[in-house]
Amino acid sequence: MSKSNRIALFSLGTPQMRAFHLTWMAFFVCFFAWFACAPLMPVIKGEFHLTPGQIANINIAAVAVTILVRLIIGPMCDRFGPRKAYTGLLLAGAVPVIGVAFAQTYESFLFFRLLIGAVGASFVITQYHTSVMFAPNVVGTANAATAGWGNAGGGVAQGVMPLLMAAMLMLGVSQGWGWRAALLVPGVLMLVMAALYWRFTQDCPEGNYDELRAAGVTIESGKRGGWASFRAAAANYRVWMLFITYGACFGVEIFIHNIAAIYYVDHFQLSLESAGIAAASFGLLALFARALGGYISDKVALRGGLNRRATLLFVMMLGEGLGLLWFAHAGSVVAAVIAMLCFGLFTHMACGATYALVPFIDRKALGGVAGIIGAGGNVGAVAAGFLMKGLGNTQQTLSMLGVLVTISALCAVAIRFTASDKSGDAALADSKVAA
């Protein structure tokens, strides 16, 4: 069985489509858990009497450890296969997700928030798994759709977590225990998802890596395992260009997830529920916008090749940077929401266009490529967190980020593919693949 050359959206009858649906579902649950604390921060702030500096530390911690785990998890997919990697991450990640509900001090909350960041590495496995399951003509769409639908978990968390807490309060639970009870939900969902992923997926169209290796079958995407995969990826300049662009789009995305609700509360005096709904609208764009970015990338590549994918990414990042500047200077909550939706659309599409390029950078070191570029997103988020801590003003931080994103779009222009890259891509696209 070979890579699929189409996405049969309403089918679970093939290994490719089971991987497609279970990867986005697993990523959705992980993203939901990753940002479940963010919309509750106005309440948690009062619970622990947090200072602005402590809140900044919590936001940085939420994304910092993901950098390291993303770098590790990509080569682990090459070595052990995405099925084992995802199941292990879901099981291990559930521990701090549940643990944060029992934090009693700022220090313990910060510790668990730091560990929760590890579940952000789920993105790398999601992109890896769809990359080995789908052919070049649809891989950009498959990568963007699974990542986008998974990313929507962050938006859902923004809207659902305040409602979950409100439901707990209606049941008579005190506010101090209400947010804690609400935070148990994503941890339980991760345990359920781990069981489903282990039961119903396999590493690649032909089967699981360990079984194939035992049978003497060569695995292209997992040929370079572990450190060799990382070194091969790190030697490719295009990886580092995409590292920067992904930091400027996905890094901004998760930064907005962390600060949006509290920004609307502090800057526009919205209620917790209203702020959660406003912030959720940004995350819910991922339901279609990231997939749209990957889909458009696939279409322009059919007409103009791999370099057209890079040019498209440049255009999308320009739109993101200019839209972010508009959001930073919006004078009313209505204007802010409209601006957020506009720049959010370009942000999600840029994320999709970035990972539409990933499968073509180095197919024999796919795990290393996906891991390094994925880590770039979190480096961007951490940098944004330190920027806000240094400036001490969210609005100024958003303005500066808008300028930096616009400049970083030039990295997309620097990505160019050689004639041999293009011929290799064409050969894969013309090869016989199964539906």
UniProtKB/TrEMBL annotation:
The protein, known as: MFS transporter
Subcellular location: Membrane
Any Pfam family: MFS_1
GO annotation, biological process: nitrate assimilation
Keywords carried by this UniProt record: Membrane, Nitrate assimilation, Transmembrane, Transmembrane helix
A GO term, aspect molecular function: nitrate transmembrane transporter activity
Domain of life, per lineage: Bacteria
Main location: membrane
Residue ranges of domain Major facilitator superfamily (MFS) profile in the record: 19-420
SUPFAM superfamilies for this protein: MFS general substrate transporter
